[in-house]
Design brief:
With about 210 residues, the protein is an alpha+beta fold. It is about 35% helix and about 20% strand. The chain binds iron/sulfur cluster.
């Protein structure tokens, strides 16, 4: 179960359900109540815009999960986003709105392995879109679409497939890239390694007909 992980000391971590780092007052209050009631060490905020409640022992796990509200990921392929127009004066595009719609869009895809995506509202790229499998970067004139990035052990900057496109056009390009990836990737092959193996020209040809 994604929401509960076994830790080295035998305790568990509970992950409340959060999308793009947004948490409601009611959800926050129930987390606080649970922490106080069970004397838990507190919460941890992760780089992936999640909140984790650590140190939950097996005997209280069920109760904590029930009381804390929905847990685990809402969507199979989670999308990160910067604040964008909800709180950043540099934003050129609505990164959080597009990230939420991208999560919806991606939920139909059964991919060979995990997919990390992120949406940045301007070219400062605070959501690190260029090192994600799928990245979107907002500009005044539209979206930049990148594919095949990775921020792990072997860092790879994604290849730009399109610039200055609308949201609808960007999603169509992402959809075609993922169709090609699904058909041709090896089991568990992340997009970065896939692009390196087949070459970006093959992807551009499949997606853009170039
Ligand atoms: S990427 Fe741009 S819009 Fe998003 S938080 Fe950073 S500066 Fe603001």
């Amino acid at each position: 179960m994604r929401a509960v992980k076994t830790r080295g000391d035998g305790s568990f971590t509970v992950v409340p359900q959060i999308s793009q780092g947004q948490i409601s007052a009611a959800q926050l209050a129930s987390i606080q109540r649970v922490i106080e009631e069970y004397g838990l060490p507190g919460i941890r905020i992760t780089a992936g815009q999640r909140v984790m409640i650590d140190g939950v022992s097996a005997d209280i796990l069920r109760e904590v999960v029930e009381k804390v509200g929905p847990v685990g990921d809402i969507f199979k392929h989670k999308v990160q986003a910067c604040l964008g127009m909800t709180g950043c004066k540099l934003a050129m595009q609505d990164s959080m709105g597009v990230a939420a719609r991208l999560e919806e869009f991606l939920k139909e895809y059964s991919l060979p392995t995990k997919l990390k995506s992120s949406v940045s509202g301007c070219s400062m790229c605070c959501a690190e879109s260029m090192i994600r499998d799928v990245g979107l970067v907002g500009r005044k004139t539209g979206w930049v679409v990148s594919f095949g990035g990775n921020g792990g052990k072997r860092v790879r900057q994604g290849d730009i497939l399109a610039q200055d496109v609308t949201e609808v056009e960007a999603f169509a390009i992402i959809g075609k890239s993922l169709d090609f990836y699904m058909k041709n990737a090896k089991v568990k092959e992340r997009t970065a390694r896939f692009v390196e193996r087949v070459g970006v020209d093959a992807i551009r040809e499949a997606v853009l007909g170039e």
